[in-house]
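Give me structure tokens for this 434-residue protein.
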Amino acid sequence: MRIVMIGTGYVGLVSGACFADFGHNVVCVDKDQSKIDALLNGEIPIFEPGLDELVARNFATGRLSFTLDLAEALPGADAVFIAVGTPSRRGDGHADLSYVYAAAKEMAPMLPAGVVVVDKSTVPVGTGDEVERIIRETAPELEFSVASNPEFLREGAAIDDFKRPDRVVIGVNDEHAERVLREIYRPLTRNESPLVTMSRRGAELTKYAANAFLATKIGFINEIADLCEKVGADVRDVAKGIGLDTRIGNRFLMPGPGYGGSCFPKDTLALIKTGQDYEAPLRIVESVVASNDTRKRSMGRKVINAMGGGELHGKTVAVLGLTFKANTDDMRDSPAISVVQALQDAGITVKAHDPEGMEQAKKVLDKVTYCDGPYEALDGADAAVIVTEWDTFRALDLEKMKALLKTPLLVDLRNLYSRSDVEAHGFTYVAVGR
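Here you go.
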């Protein structure tokens, strides 16, 4: 099938490359000249393991192409996926749908008959209705469908998630849209991947509900971790004890410095706003958002308290990991931002290293010394703090660390280390919920 993907950001590029790898002909469209030029030259604008190879392979076969010209891409399209950003709108937290609606308006006079327009972007309930209205207003005689097909991709594992998904959610209001989307995803159904079909509004809500539920699990275990510290329990034992219950499951029960990234922060806020608009307030989700905001800042205080509190001007902390999670360069709403800012507010100098995220970090964090490796960051620091669970931080040379640090203090916000191992090397070890 011929697919047009509007947007070459994280979702659009991963989805477009994977669809091409299924054998479809995919044209990715973007307004950013620098992005298109980079992609045409084989340069990937985001870090995602395996994506560069996937794009190169399908570009070489001709199944995947890139253009700035939407009019050039649309003729003959069976489906047009809208995969543009929907960030939180400044001031009120609602999802900013201006890019979605602009795409709908621009494509409307050029759409071929029978096309299915698919919202791949994360959008609030009713967005598909408005996209349909915008297109119908410009092209009242056109036969077309609008569907919702939310993505459930984890940064760092997006290709595997796309090709081996837990489920593919398709929201349609007519049989033609369902047939087209089933054909697009046919390579997955051969492997018995569950294709879940529902109404368009149901699919829009499913995406937000899923992310809000996962965020709730994270917020819950983080608060249990705080209680474990007070009562002398180990949160890892508690997490295992509840996670083995199949009704709960063990995923997203790892305590840490709070959630961040491109999805959970904005999607929980957007869901809260939707609940308010429809007079169905989501008190649990509201509490999760408030708890997570407090959590990230409190991790900075945790480091400060571990250093003894009081006057810390002139002290230096080595921050290991800046991105919101490992295997990405994404700094959006990363807990590291709050941790670093809390340390700086206390007069502490910050040295930092991240395997992939330092260029992005420089855009949001000032007065940080960025280091080429973890040991460079540790050299001369008064304490070390692990903020992101990169593999390279899981097996640090503790003897070398101790020799480089002024004070052998390790604050492990991801619980990567064994207390007995670290303390055996003469460290003071501070973890989460242990």
